[in-house]
């Protein structure tokens, strides 16, 4: 067989192989969320369809996992210890890329869908979240501080898992609802959807959600971000003025 025929046969095989995998058509109920004074939280609907490349119904059973991740940031976790009846900071750990918000919903529990390696590659749950510690840290200590960070974020409502939070209708339509609390930080969020069959991710797609502050709080946040030096000077000046004012009030008494 000539090289040209071999190339054609290989291309045909690739097309046939790729045609087996579905495609995802995702969307979200809100692409922009505006944080105004009195914001009490909201619910985000992530939905879409699982289709063959030609647009027909996929026709196979797929597990769906939806991951909504907020902007990443560096975080320092400090452990407190009680010394002579006083709580003081003890050991600490710093993480380079902790998401400010992280929520996962799946059609079944993740451990029933994929193995740990695949879950870690795609960050399909809180146990497999990649936080990237800074500096050298013992693996056991890293695990302890990572668990502490996750626990703190869960109590704030900023980390969440829903093992059966995705509904799939007739192997075509999927939907999931994720809650954004009132303290959700501003930034660009990424909603990723994964179609999984027999422990393998066969398709993925993503969409974005922008969360922004409006009004006076938004103006202050933008000023702090864009003019951090002058914001720092202003904060120091306000602190000095408030201290001077408190001293004057007590002196008058």
Structure write-up:
- Strand 9 and strand 10 form a beta hairpin.
- By secondary structure, the chain is of the alpha+beta class.
- The protein is built from five helices and twelve strands.
- It has two domains: 21-213, Immunoglobulin-like, CATH 2.60.40; 214-245, no CATH class.
- The chain is globular, with a radius of gyration of 24 Å.
- A six-stranded mixed β-sheet has the order 2-12-11-4-7-8.
- The longest helix is centred in the last third of the chain and has 25 residues, at 228-252.
Number of helical segments with 4 or more residues = 5
Biggest pleated-sheet summary: 6 strands, mixed
Sum up the overall morphology in one term: globular
Q: How would you state the average pLDDT, rounded?
A: 81
Q: Mind telling me the CATH class of the largest domain?
A: Mainly Beta
Listing every helix as H and every strand as E from the N terminus to the C terminus, the arrangement reads HEEEEEEEHHEEEEEHH
End-to-end gap:
103 Å
Strand order of the largest sheet: 2-12-11-4-7-8
List keywords for this structure.
2 domains; disordered N terminus; 31% helix; globular; six-stranded mixed beta sheet; Immunoglobulin-like; four-stranded antiparallel beta sheet; alpha+beta; 253 residues
Please specify the SSE layout and strand pairing.
Blueprint: H1 3-20, E1 23-28, E2 32-35, E3 42-51, E4 63-69, E5 72-83, E6 86-99, E7 102-106, H2 116-122, H3 139-155, E8 159-162, E9 166-169, E10 173-180, E11 187-197, E12 200-213, H4 215-226, H5 228-252
Parallel strand pairs: 2-12, 7-8
Antiparallel strand pairs: 1-3, 3-10, 4-7, 4-11, 5-6, 9-10, 11-12
Helix pairs in contact: 4-5
């Amino acid at each position: 067989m000539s090289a040209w025929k071999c190339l054609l046969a290989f291309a045909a095989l690739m097309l046939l192989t790729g045609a087996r995998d579905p495609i995802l058509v995702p969307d979200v109920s809100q692409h922009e969320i505006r944080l105004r004074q009195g914001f009490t939280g909201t619910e985000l609907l992530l939905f879409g369809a699982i289709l063959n490349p030609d647009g027909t119904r996929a026709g196979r059973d797929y597990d769906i996992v939806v991951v909504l991740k907020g902007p990443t940031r560096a975080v320092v976790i400090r452990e407190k210890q009680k010394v002579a009846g006083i709580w003081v900071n003890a050991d600490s750990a710093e993480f380079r890329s902790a998401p400010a918000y992280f929520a996962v919903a799946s059609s079944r529990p993740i451990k029933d869908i994929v193995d740990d390696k695949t879950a870690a590659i795609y960050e399909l749950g809180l146990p497999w979240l990649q936080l990237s510690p800074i500096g050298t840290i013992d693996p056991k200590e890293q695990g302890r501080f990572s668990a502490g960070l996750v626990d703190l974020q869960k109590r704030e409502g900023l980390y969440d898992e829903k093992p059966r939070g995705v509904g799939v209708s007739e192997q075509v339509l999927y939907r999931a609802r994720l809650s954004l609390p009132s303290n959700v930080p501003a930034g660009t969020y990424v909603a990723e959807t994964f179609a999984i069959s027999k422990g393998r991710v066969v398709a993925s797609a993503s969409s974005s959600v922008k969360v922004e502050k409006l009004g006076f709080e938004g103006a202050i946040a933008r000023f702090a971000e864009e003019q951090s030096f002058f914001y720092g000077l202003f904060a120091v000046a306000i602190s000095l003025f408030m201290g001077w004012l408190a001293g004057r009030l007590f002196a008058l008494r």
